[in-house]
Design a protein that fits this description.
alpha/beta, TIM Barrel, two-stranded antiparallel sheet
Length: 266
């Protein structure tokens, strides 16, 4: 199976291209499945450059559902969503998720405290930061996210390295704790190639995380985090090799919030 479950559209305000254009890109590249997973409306900030608005959510769902039917004979289209974990807004997030027939939900963290840490406009806040403490706080927040029961996939699990600001401590014990929580929750994580397009210059998560996950038996899926149609499936030769070299032979696939395992195909 060849799939990409992390694809954005112009609706998020910082991407380009329509759902249809991304689907056509996936077809041209020989994909079996494409999951559209734009950002659920962010409730902790009012910024149209970061996510769709509440008013646009219904349009997003209707658009993907309509194209799912239109392309049924050519490719499997899935209605996904990327939903932030932010404890103060969790009840509203849960309400939005339950109101729509999503095939899967990617759980991501882009904010710690009041800092949207992956926003290039906020880069200076890394100056003088205790990176070791920050990494651990982030990973502990991901673990707490898995315990909510709201999400299916842990998105870009080490996004904190995006700008190549690295922790100096051994993160393996924290990775293991997170992975055991993912496994206990019946979730999977994604290998996301967007990190190759940022200063980190490596996939999210790092190879050590993937190898540890494979040893524990935590399911994995694939995402490009495409922000334009041409990026669908981008750099998957790198992520597939990492996954295979770590011992995986299958990917997690979804439909109707149910996970199934499918053979990994380059």
């Amino acid at each position: 199976m060849k799939l990409d479950y992390h694809v954005h559209t112009y609706l998020c305000g910082h991407a380009e291209g329509t759902v249809e254009e991304s689907i056509e890109s996936a077809i041209a590249k020989g994909f079996d499945e494409i999951g559209i997973a734009d950002h659920l409306p962010l409730l902790y900030v009012d910024d149209p450059s970061l996510s769709m608005s509440r008013d646009q959510l219904e349009f997003y769902v209707d658009t993907v559902q309509g194209l799912k039917e239109r392309y049924r004979s050519r490719i499997k289209v899935l209605l996904g969503i990327e939903a932030d974990y932010h404890p103060p807004t969790l009840d509203d997030v849960a309400s939005m998720l339950s109101a729509h027939p999503f095939d899967y939900v990617i759980g991501s963290i882009h904010i710690v405290g009041n800092w949207i840490f992956d926003d290039p406009r906020e880069l200076k806040r890394y100056d003088g930061l205790d990176l070791d403490r920050f990494y651990i706080e982030y990973l502990e927040s991901l673990k707490a996210m898995t315990e909510t029961g709201l999400y299916d996939i842990v998105g870009h699990p080490d996004l904190v390295k995006k700008f190549d600001k690295r922790a100096s401590v051994d993160l393996a014990p924290h990775y293991r704790s997170l992975l055991e929580a993912i496994d206990a929750a019946g979730m999977c994580y994604e290998v996301n190639t967007a990190g190759l397009r940022w200063p980190a210059r490596e996939v999210y998560p790092e190879v050590a995380f993937v190898k540890l996950a494979a040893g524990i038996g935590v399911p994995v899926t694939l995402g490009s985090d495409a922000h334009k149609p041409d990026d669908v499936g981008r750099d998957f030769e790198t992520s597939v090799k990492i996954i295979q070299d770590s011992g995986y032979t299958e990917l997690a696939a979804f439909e109707g919030r149910e996970m199934r395992m499918v053979p990994l195909r380059p």
